[in-house]
Amino acid sequence: MAMTTTPQSPGGSGGSSPRASTGLRPSGPSGVVPPGRHQLAPPKVTLIDDASRTATVVEVRAHDAPGLLWRIGRALGECGLDVRAARVETLGAKAVDVFYVVGADGRPVTDAPTRGKIAARVLSALTG
């Protein structure tokens, strides 16, 4: 099972859901993006179970900005995780970063409450 976390918006429900969320949100009273303006999708953090047997896979999708990797790395470190490998990509203005992490015991994180805290901490680092 994968866990996805997105920021909660007023009147909407962010949080965890199985696999992916749409990432769509209205931008104004009519929900229409004004001409010449681009709507930024909210950051999304997904923990994917079936991508590795030896690590917990954390996928982060966010608008690229200076210091983005530092904020993600700091959040993972504050959760007591070690990054074993990472794949970092920037597609236009969007960053899609994948981290293979393990707990202090060198094993994947399987505890649901801990996984929820990891996703929430990384998302907080992206939005706060």
Helices and strands in order, then pairings?
Layout: E1 3-6, E2 15-18, E3 44-48, E4 56-63, H1 68-78, E5 82-91, E6 94-102, H2 112-127
Antiparallel strand pairs: 1-2, 1-3, 3-4, 4-6, 5-6
Helix pairs in contact: 1-2
Plain-language structure description:
This protein has 128 residues and is of the alpha+beta class. The protein has a domain at 41-128: ACT domain (Alpha-Beta Plaits, 2-Layer Sandwich). Helix content is 21%, strand content 31%. The protein has 2 helices and 6 strands, in the order ββββαββα. It has helices at residues 68-78, 112-127, and strands at residues 3-6, 15-18, 44-48, 56-63, 82-91, 94-102. A 6-stranded antiparallel sheet has the order 2-1-3-4-6-5, covered by helices on one side. A hairpin with a 2-residue loop joins strand 5 (82-91) and strand 6. Helix 1 (68-78) runs antiparallel to helix 2 (112-127). The radius of gyration is 15 Å and the shape is globular. The two termini are 27 Å apart.
End-to-end CA span: 27 Å
**What amount of the residues lies in strands?**
25-35%
Largest sheet: 6 strands, antiparallel
Radius of gyration: 15 Å
Report the uncertain regions. 9-27
Summarize the structure.
This protein has 128 residues and is α+β, with helices and mostly antiparallel strands. Helix content is 21%, strand content 31%.
